[in-house]
Specification:
Organism: Nakamurella multipartita (strain ATCC 700099 / DSM 44233 / CIP 104796 / JCM 9543 / NBRC 105858 / Y-104) (Microsphaera multipartita)
Mean pLDDT: 77
Protein name: AMOT angiomotin
Helix content: 55-70%
Length: 140
């Protein structure tokens, strides 16, 4: 008797599983069929274009914010030839200017070290192809 009961339960479960999978297969086929209609394709295409537009907008916003941040780091500089104030990026100016030392009225101006200039001498002013060691008579 127990075997008949187990056999009957197995048949019932097999039938239920078969029906459920058939319904799922039919639903998937209907969904696929509905997805291949012109209106569904147009809706998918519209969604894809909207996503692309949002991505391009986000990229443009990031670029705009980067330009604003970059512009905020520029420093004003007076152009010597025209006298106009131009905005220059910090890497074009070099190091920041030194702070101005307060002066005592009637006192001497603060002393600053004079920059030394390195003078270079052209070892071969005539432009010959011989090296300086050979001109002097030494062997290299």
């Amino acid at each position: 008797m127990k075997r008949v009961y187990v056999f009957g339960a197995g048949v019932a479960l097999g039938v239920a599983a078969t029906r459920r999978t058939r319904r799922a297969k039919e639903a998937a086929a209907a969904a696929m069929k509905a997805k291949l209609t012109p209106s569904a394709i147009a809706a998918d295409l519209a969604d894809a274009i909207a996503e692309l537009g949002n991505a391009v907008g986000a990229f443009a916003s990031d670029v705009r914010q980067g330009a604003i941040n970059r512009r905020a780091s520029y420093r004003p500089l007076v152009d010597n030839s025209t006298g106009a104030v131009v905005m220059v990026p910090p890497e074009a100016l070099g190091p920041a200017p030194e702070p101005v030392e307060p002066r005592i009225p009637g006192g001497l101006p603060p002393t600053r070290p004079t920059p030394t200039r390195a003078h270079t001498v052209d070892p071969d002013p005539a432009g010959s192809s011989r090296s300086a060691a050979r001109r002097v008579g030494h062997r290299a």
